[in-house]
Amino acid sequence: MHRISKDEPATETGGTAIVRALIENGINRGFCVPGESFLGILNAFDTYKDNFDLVVCRHEGGASFMAEAQARMTGKPGVCLVTRGPGSCNALIGLSTAMQESTPMILIIGHVSTGTAERFPFQGIDPKSVFGSVSKWVGVVERSSDIPYMIDRAIRISMAGRPGPVVIAVPDDVQMKDVPAVAIRPATRMAAAPSPSQIDTLQDMLSNSKKPLAIVGGNLWTAKTSELFKEFAEKNDLPVATTFRRNDLIDNNNDHYIGSFGPVPHPALIKYATESDLILLLGGRLSEIETGRYSQLATNDPARKFIQAGALDDEFGEVLIPDLAITTDMTALGAALVDLPHRNKTPWADDRARLRTSYETYRKPVDFGDLSNPAIAVAALSKAMPDETIVTGGAGNYTHFFLRHHNFKTTGTLLAPLSGPMGYSIPSAISAAMARPGIETLAYVGDGCFFMNPQELVIAVKRELPVTVVMFNNGIYGSIRMHQELNPAGRVVATTLDNPDFQIFAKSLGMQSVQVNDPAEVVGAREALRAKTKGPIFIELMTDPEVITTQRTISQIRGN
Fold this sequence. Notes:
single chain, alpha/beta, Rossmann fold, 6-stranded parallel sheet, 21 helices, 35% helix
C-alpha cells in the first residue's frame, strides 16, 4: 500500500489525494460512470490501479446501488464516482437507499469549475440543495488545499453514529492542482456501549414481564453480533422477530425465530406483538411497514413497556417513546446481554413454542389448486443452495415470496433495501459477488424490476461472477396491480407490461439462459446452467398474474 514517507514527493494532485485517502482507509473498490468533470481523479486511479479496483458501469443508478451493496458486504464506505449535473442526479437513487439503510457511502461528484457557480455553467446544479435530504453531509470543495481535509471528513462522517451516505463535490480544475501530500490516519468508528445500570434496568423489566417480544433490526450486525443475540434469546426463551427486510439477522431455523414484520406479516406474530407487555427493539426502527401503517405498535400503552436500543439517540421516540433508551452498538449490547443469568422457566415458554409452530406452518407455500405457486421455487432453491448464498431483491410483489419462503441461516446474506427501490437486485448481486469471492449470489427480480438495471450484467459476464438471476415473469407491475385490486374502485390502469424476449436479451449479454413454466423445475434448471458456466446465469420463471400475492389470488381479493 502506498504511504507518504520522507523519500516521497511533498505534493500531489488533488485527485491523487482523494484516491490515496480511500486506499489508506482500506477502501479498494469503487464504481463509476466516467465523466470529463473528474479526469483528475481518474488519472489518479490509473496511478493506483494495482491498489484499487475501479468498476466501470453503464448507468449511475446501477453504480450507486453497487456502491451501497459493497458497503453492506464489507463494512467500509462504498464509493461511487459520477459526473456533474445529469450523472449525479442519476446516482441519487443510491444515496436515498443508503440513507434509509444506514449504509456508509461516499458519492464523489466531478463538479463545475471554480468561479462558474451562479453563472449558468454547463451541467451545473447546487449539490447541497439537491442531495441534502438524502445524505448526512454534503461538502463542496472550494480550494485545492481543502481536498485532504474534505475527503477525510467525508469518510469519517459516513461511518459515525448511524452510518449513512455523504457527498463531496470536487470542481474539475482543483483536481489537477497540487496539494500538500499529508500523512493519512485511517478513520475509525467511535463505538458506543450500554452502561451497567441500563443492563440492570433491562433485566428487571424482562424479569417482570409475562409476554415479551424481542425485535431485532438495523445495521452494523456481524456473525458475532447475531450469535450473541441468539444466545441471549435462548437463555431467556425469548420469541424473536425481525424488522422489515432484516430476516437474516437470526437463523430462521432457530426455534426462537417467529417471523418478520413485513407487508404480508405472520398473523400470529402481529397478534402476539399487540398483546405483549414488553417490546425490546434492538437496533431497528419502527416504520410504516412494521406498524401496519401505524395501526399497531404505534401508540404508547401503559400496560406495555418499551425498550429501544440503537446507535443514534435522536431516533428514539419516532413512533413509541421508550421506557428505556440505550445508545449503543449492537455487538456491545449483545455482549452485555449474554452475560445475564440463564432462566430455566419463563411464563412465556408456551407462547414462544406456539408461535414457532405457527410460523413454520405459515412459511410453507400456499396451495392455489390448479395455479402454480412461485414460492415452490423459492423454497426449493433455499434448500438447494449453500447457506452463505447472498439473496438480493428490489421492489415488487415477487419480493414477498422470497422474504417469506427463503430460510436465511447466515447473517449478511440478504440485500433488500427498506426503501424498496426497483432496479436494486441486479447491481447489488453483482457487487456482492465481487465483495465475497466464491460465494454465489441469487438475484430475485420481477419482469418490471429487472429492466431497471439489466445493463450492469455485462460486468458479471466479463468477470465471470457466480450470479444466478431468477425472474418472476407475470407480464404486469404486480405490486401496483395488487393495490388496484384492493382499492374499492378496482380499476386496472397502467400495470400491463409489453415485455421483450428476455431469453434473447440474456443471451445477447453472453449469459446462459433458460425459460421454465413449472416452479418445481427451477432447481434443476439452475444446476444444468451452472454446470455450463461459473459466470452469471438467467432463469425466467413464467408465473400466472392471478397469483398476485403469497396468500391470495386476484380472484380471492375480488371476492374478499
